[in-house]
Amino acid sequence: LYNNENLGLIIIGLAALICLILAVLLIREIVKLVYWRRMRRLEQAGNPKN
Question: How far apart are CA 11 and CA 5, in angstroms?
């Protein structure tokens, strides 16, 4: 039972690291999506016949 504190800290650290990586990936995808939508809107504004 004495080593469980260390193990708990390792598990919490790994969980925090995984959450951080997932958050970064999610933010990057959202930025890409916003950028892509903005580019599409600009293309549609430039080509009104489409």
Answer: 10
What whole-number distance in Å separates Cα of residue 32 and Cα of residue 47? 22
How many Å apart are CA 47 and CA 36, to the nearest integer? 16
Instruction: State pLDDT tens for residues 26-48.
Output: 999 999 999 999 999 988 888 76
Q: How far apart are CA 36 and CA 22, in angstroms?
A: 21
Buried-exposed string 15-31: b where 16+ CB fall within 10 A, e elsewhere: eeeeeeeeeeeeeeeee
